[in-house]
Give the backbone structure.
Amino acid sequence: MNPAAEAAHALAAVKDADRKHVFHSWSAQELIDPLAVAGAEGSYFWDYEGKRYLDFSSALVYTNIGYQHPKVAAAIAEQAAKLCTVAPGFAVDVRSEAARLIAERTPGDLDKIFFTNAGAEAVENAVRMARLHTGRPKVLSTYRSYHGATSTAINLTGDARRFGNDTATAGVVHFWGPFLYRSPFHATTEAEECARALRHLEDTIVFEGPQSIAAIILETVGGAPGVLVPPAGYLAGVRELCDRHGIVFILDEIMVGFGRTGAWFAADNWEVTPDLICFAKGVTSGYVPLGGVAISAAIAETFARRPYPGGLTYSGHVLACAAAVATINVMEEEGIVAQSARTGAELLGPGLRALAERHPSVGEVRGLGTFWALELVRNPETREPLVPYNAAGADNAPMAELAAACKKGGLWPLAAGNRLHVAPPCNITPEDVAKGLEILDEALSVADAHVA
């Protein structure tokens, strides 16, 4: 069998098994046709026909060091040969080292690390810690947020994925966070938006009863809702409100930690220290699933002589911890965090703003580091979104056409709502940034065709 025939045979087998046995998340199973991926390296992956895609999504915003970094792959293999698994109750060198490396990079005194398998479990446990620490039931989170798909995390979520899962019994209260482009506070400047958003949050606290609120959880930079960068002073203002009322401040850094915003943790951009940080994704570049909660001294002390009532069979799995140690060391050795900051400031930011000047469908560009979004509109003056909120089917056709145009050009996009997110690996080369922007430039003409 020649190579082309072998590839076709392999493709058919993968697709057949997928259709028969794999149940895909967030999907109507008979309406999807997943691309079969044959391999990946660096900022690219490719299909069985050899077509290469420049990945401007970093998978699901987690391949921070790109695909198949040889040092991380080797570290996982070395750990597998040494010790594949051990129960979480034991002290193990690689688990201790992963915790130490993470704690060294967290802000303030968040020096204890509780390991989970992924981000949603980190959110679940952070909320549990906050409730036990305070003895209070309620948790506040924003609309336009995503915190995971497990029971508490999906109820905390503020986007449409909550709708089919919301039990209205999770003790969650939603409020509006700052978003100047679509301000719920009729603000005209970042300073106004910040002040009014903080006043709204303060009013929410007062009317919910601060004595009943365990925690406020925020994505440091809103990810899935559209790369919502908080205005200067907002996170510090939330910190002050939490301190005033004895509320635990949780930052969800699952998507933005480990270099994504040009800092080890996005909170560093605003010099704010929360009480708990949830992390996952980039800590291993997604090579082996790992998440966790970084815990402040005060909350850790709550459980010094009182058992913490939570745990996971695979907490701090040694293969995942080996991937974390190798990933963090690679990021240090190769200066990837600083590279992400430079790429955003010198390449992605200017390049995307230049696209906005040429394309009337781009209403706003926002982001930092290697984490950006294009807000797409039908009318730049009225800011009508290119597609309605939670659009599907025919209503979502303009975004589907745009995504298809990107893929045709060899760029894999991350489309969400009326936004095109731009989140390549943090170590993407300048040449690949330029290539991706060129493909985007051509593809956006599809969106422009829908502008009134």
Notes: The chain has a mean pLDDT of 97. Residues 58 and 344 are 15 Å apart (CA to CA). The longest strand covers residues 371-379. The first helix runs from residue 3 to 21.
